[in-house]
Specification:
The chain has 196 residues and is mainly α. The protein is 74% helix and 0% strand. The model has no long low-confidence stretch (mean pLDDT 93).
Length: 196
């Protein structure tokens, strides 16, 4: 129990590192005051361009991957690995360093999935890319790909505890996209490629 608690805490702290905010501040910009105010790669792309967005994306993905990798090395238990990954996603969305504010958690969740269940991670990315290619809505791509995540996990990696973790990840990300859902319904959501 102590080891699990430490791994979850480490995952949360790791996930709390706000790469988008750090990258933007290096450019003299407070990313939380421009565009959507989100610290994720999509807002960084709209506000600062491709290179800063790529750095943000890589950093946010790696947070999830490292959290699961450490848990795998220390505990070697799929449920504990999943909890550490979930904690990293939660850390990104409720960052310790941003007064418990943060991003939507999509990139960090992808980082978790790519090591936790690689086929599921790739399938999730594929669904996201397909939806974005058709609609140009990054948020809709995230919503669709994570709404079907429990099913994707069941199909590609049906270990019961992993399906449970998939439900928890999906629930967290959908809740974090509540404002995006509202804007999508109103037709006011920004599309990929639009400037902030």
């Amino acid at each position: 129990m102590a080891v699990t608690s430490l791994l979850v805490m480490a995952g949360f702290i790791l996930g709390s590192i706000p790469f988008g905010d750090i990258v933007a501040r290096l450019r003299g910009i407070n990313i939380r005051e421009v565009g959507s105010g989100n610290i994720g790669a999509t807002n960084v792309l709209r506000s600062l361009g491709k290179a800063p967005a790529l750095l943000t994306l890589i950093g946010d993905i790696m947070k999830g991957t490292v959290a699961v990798a450490v848990a795998r090395y220390v505990a070697g238990d799929p449920f504990i690995e999943g909890l550490a990954g979930l904690a990293a996603i939660a850390g990104h969305t409720f960052s310790l360093f941003l007064r418990f504010r943060g991003g939507k958690g999509v990139a960090t969740a992808i980082g978790v999935l790519l090591i936790y269940a690689p086929a599921v991670g790739l399938a999730t990315v594929a669904v996201w890319l397909l939806v974005v290619a058709v609609t140009r809505y990054s948020s809709l791509g995230a919503l669709v790909s994570f709404a079907v995540l429990p099913l994707t996990m069941y199909v590609f990696d049906s270990i019961r505890v992993k399906v449970v973790i998939a439900f928890l990840i999906a629930g967290l990300l959908i809740v974090r996209h509540a404002a995006n859902i509202e804007r999508l319904l109103k037709g006011t959501e920004s599309r990929v490629g639009e400037k902030a």
